[in-house]
Give the backbone structure.
Amino acid sequence: MNRRFMLQSTALFAASMVTRRARAQASVVDTSNYFIMNQSAALPVRLPPKPVAGPSLTPDEVNGLERQLRCQCGCTLDVYTCRTTDLVCQVAPAMHRDVSTLAAGGYTSDEILNAFAKVYGDRVLMAPPARGFNRLAYALPWLGIVTGGVVLTFALRRRAPEAR
Amino acid sequence: MTIVGELSLWTALLMACWCAIVSFTGAATHRPDLARSGERAAHAVFAFSALAFIGLAQALLRRDFSYSYVVGHITVNMPAPYVLAAIWSGPQGSALLWALLLAACAAVAATDIRRVLPSLAPHAVTTLGCVLAFVLAAIALDANPFDRMEVVPGDGRGMNPQLQNPGMLAHPPLLVFGLAATAIPFALGISAMTNRVIPAGWVRLSRRWMFGAWLLLSAGVLSGMWWAYVEPGWGGYWSWDPVQSSALLPWLVSTAGIHALVAFERRSSYSRWLLTLVTLPFILAVFTAFVTRGVLVDSIHSFARSPMGTWFSGFLVVVCAATTFLLATRPVRSEQPATATRGSPREAALLYGTVVLVGIAFSVSVGLLFPLFNEWMGETRVTVAAPFFNHVNAPFVLVLLALMGVAQLLDWPASASTAITRQMRWPAIAGGAIILLLFAAGMRDVQVTATCGLAGFVVAAIIRDEERRYGRYITHAAVAMLLAAFTGMRFVRTYDVGLTAGQAFDATDPFGRQWRFTSQGLSRSQYRNSEVLSVTLELRRDGEVLGLVTSEKRQYVDSHGHPIFDPSTEAGIRTGPRMDTYVVLAHVNEDVADVRITFNPLVAWVWIGGVLLIVGGVVSLRAGTRTVR
């Protein structure tokens, strides 16, 4: 194969591919640029107020609690950040209303988190609760580092070659 | 010109295939003429990729709406810098940018490797040719930015508002450049394993390329942090978003790789671990591309999803399998002369450091993939976000800081334990003094106290060191500064308040100072491509007027004035040495502006630390380049 033949073949291939693709026109706009929000993702989290009900959490504690709950609109943010940043999201304000109602009803942080997890599942929590299979996520990093350290310690003691 | 660009994309693909095949044949038949042809083909791939890139740039700048990519990413009234930045605002364009930067690295590296390590060059160029052929094939066949429209519209759909920020001009190119550059150490590692030898000179060449990639990744990650801080209005610079986290992986492992190369240069041992760390950053770069473009994880970067995710998943499997096979089956002989003696304490500290760095990368990967793994195991879906990553990684970061300080003080020859103790005395006193000072000031947060104490230990250890390696000093001091500054975010104080014009709100910052925020009212303004609703607050601290801060909601519009996308947030930030005052316009109810005011301590030190990290990296890279020459 000489250079001229190679160049001619390359040009021919490129031209034929461009022509073929030009015939098969794209009829749709590339919409990878767009984030589609699920505005109907909020589910009611309701519990009757406790008998001797008084607000159980301060506004700061409510904000802190909302940082542990994930907004379900698809944004990947916590409820507090989403509701104080996104003008359009209707999911985070709805979840905030439920948190506030439960706090006003005398429920503690843990009880509120459990109530949300019961309705939405564990995906509503910003970190997996350390129970059952989830413990693996917390244990694996330690296991990895400790194993690496032990292996290296043995290797340093046994395998280091002499300097030449 | 655009049609030339389109033609060039296909030609670049052919040239990449030629580069891979001819280099491989040259290596197999020991024919230097074929190897040189492969090298020239690498140069040609770069030239044609550049033409394709220019073609797309011209289509965007001419606002040629006959192309689907142009329609999907710009409008007629968009400012020119963002029109140009639209090249990498979509998955097709950013893949083309990746191909261009990868081709640029490959073109330079092909000549560089032939000059320094002629015996390894054909295999290294073969590897680079294969990677280029893959990326260009994925673009040409499944993410072609030159796809055309059947009906040409009068205006486009515009760019995602979060991308219309000056950060868009720097962050994606820097990060993509860094990810692409990891291919060079990968090719050097593969060629060493294929030839079963690490020749003298390989370590320094690999270190230089790895350091270059690390520097670009550092700049890319830091510019991304800055962008995340100023643009979406979330109030933080690191949210452990899956794409943000995945970009950290190659950086962490590259850092480990650089340290392993330093240790290997002196001791010439643990070649398999070294080759793992040299090849792994590229594998993780492909993983990052897969996470960014795939649909497996939910991310704020979901605008980057494309069919290329499938391509990258396939490529990831192939690259992992090939590298693992070579690592497992090819014992490598080292020709690097060892200059340090057996039992070198600094070597041990460096290697333990690499284990911790890879361990942190592993922990981040576990967090990224655990939701998927959980689902595959039939468990309920879980979310793994900031609380998990902060909780799991905090102790590892402390170990890393301690090792950083200790490694500065240890020597290459084995020293007596009394000498080591003497070396460590003053840095340990400095670290302890910081802990005591913080405790006396009322600090009871163990993580913050330990991080700041260990950061002080690192800086004091650097001062004690007598080697005069300024690049290394600056880089390690910058990392200590960054990690200490990150702890500031544990003391964030936030206020939500509704303000009408003239109304004031009093707040106390984490340092106990009194602030008064007085609303100057809402204002509306019209720009060429956006309608802006803003609130301005006057800031007073302990009675002293500090100035005005404005936060905006921007509604982008097309050339007909029609709204495109949802409104986006522009935070108002006042930066100070102790903390930032961060204002976000959250909602507007008639004339009441709902504002979120946040005091973010030590943020300025994050940016100073970031700049120092880059400066230190440049100094080290220059020193390394001089050494190679």
